[in-house]
Amino acid sequence: MQPFNVLWLQGGSCGGCTMAALDNGTSGWFAELARFGIDLLWHPSLSEATADEVVEIFDRIAAGALRLDALVLEGSVLRGPNGTGRFNMLGGTGRSMLHWVNALAPYANYVVAAGSCAAFGGVPMAGTNPTDASGLQYAGAEAGGALGAGFRSRAGLPVINIAGCAPHPGWISETLAALALGGFDGEALDDFGRPRFYADHLAHHGCARNEYYEFKASAEELSQQGCMMEHLGCKATQAVGDCNQRGWNGNGSCTSGGMACIACTSPGFESAQNFLETAKLGGIPVGLPLDMPKAWFVALAALSKSATPKRVRANATSDHVIVPPRTDSGRRK
């Protein structure tokens, strides 16, 4: 059986996606890759090969002497200045990352964006975007990016966007495993090219604060237990991801750690004016659940608040449970 060859490049990146990947599996990421026959041809932070050895790998791919099953990019493509890409040069090659992405992508059976920076531009694209950062096939929510909206890999797929800042390690490994096993096609991707095995869920699903959300019992400060949607900027009802169904590091998530979801799997998340404050219009949060009409939400919120148990209301603005639920006997614990 031939190995599934993966070449991993890093553009405008903090390295967090690699750090996330390294956390995957009890036996370690490399063992996980080996389990599915995945061979990491080169990774700028993890491989020993440097300089001419790396260029030789690139040249062999371009010459057809080395099969490239998946080209993975972590980080944004910095296209500036003036379309030259020289804001991000690949050391020792005299050429930009923009050049190498465009030179190698046509030889890859699959092209994969690891993280929201590679997918949509991410944090380097925020504000005035002086480096002209973009994702591989998107600039924010607009199709295009470094490879162009019409790009398709040798397998006929657009860029596979493992969006997240950083993505869950399982999203990275499971995507690569699915590609290696040949069980991945266009139906496996959503409208933004994100793998549906995690993008068909919302970060809200499985949140430990769901009882507070149901009764619209809201936290007013980050240390409190209530729902963070109304006041503290939480976008879990609008953000795709199964973050609260498969814990990070075996357990944690943003909301379980007391931090609002910032919708990091979504294009443009980096442009929020304040991640920890809910934008409102007429006292109503601007960002509502993705598939709920505003009128329904307002009516439901009013009804829910009127039915909020005293226990839930009291605990919502506390940093610990101060009123426990009743036991089966009807008495407090």
From TrEMBL:
Location of the region described as Disordered in the Swiss-Prot/TrEMBL record: 314-333
GO CC list: [Ni-Fe] hydrogenase complex; cell envelope; ferredoxin hydrogenase complex; membrane
Residues the record lists as binding [4Fe-4S] cluster 1: C14, C17, C117, C165
Places the protein is found: Cell envelope
Pfam families noted in UniProt: NiFe_hyd_SSU_C (PF14720), Oxidored_q6 (PF01058)
Listed transmembrane segments: none
Amino-acid positions noted as binding [4Fe-4S] cluster 2 in the UniProt annotation, renumbered to this chain: H204, C207, C227, C234
GO molecular-function terms, A-Z: 3 iron, 4 sulfur cluster binding; 4 iron, 4 sulfur cluster binding; electron transfer activity; ferredoxin hydrogenase activity; hydrogenase (acceptor) activity; metal ion binding
Domain Cytochrome-c3 hydrogenase C-terminal: 201-274
One example of a Gene Ontology biological process annotation: anaerobic respiration
Keyword Phosphoprotein included in the entry's annotation: no
Cofactor: [3Fe-4S] cluster; [4Fe-4S] cluster
Catalytic activity: H2 + A = AH2
Residue span(s) of domain NADH:ubiquinone oxidoreductase-like 20kDa subunit: 14-179
Ligand binding ([3Fe-4S] cluster): C243, C261, C264
EC number: 1.12.99.6
Keywords, comma-separated and alphabetical: 3Fe-4S, 4Fe-4S, Cell membrane, Iron, Iron-sulfur, Membrane, Metal-binding, Oxidoreductase, Signal
Family to which the UniProt record says this protein belongs: Belongs to the [NiFe]/[NiFeSe] hydrogenase small subunit family.
Subunit structure: Heterodimer of a large and a small subunit.
Name of this protein: hydrogenase (acceptor)
Organism: Rhodopseudomonas palustris
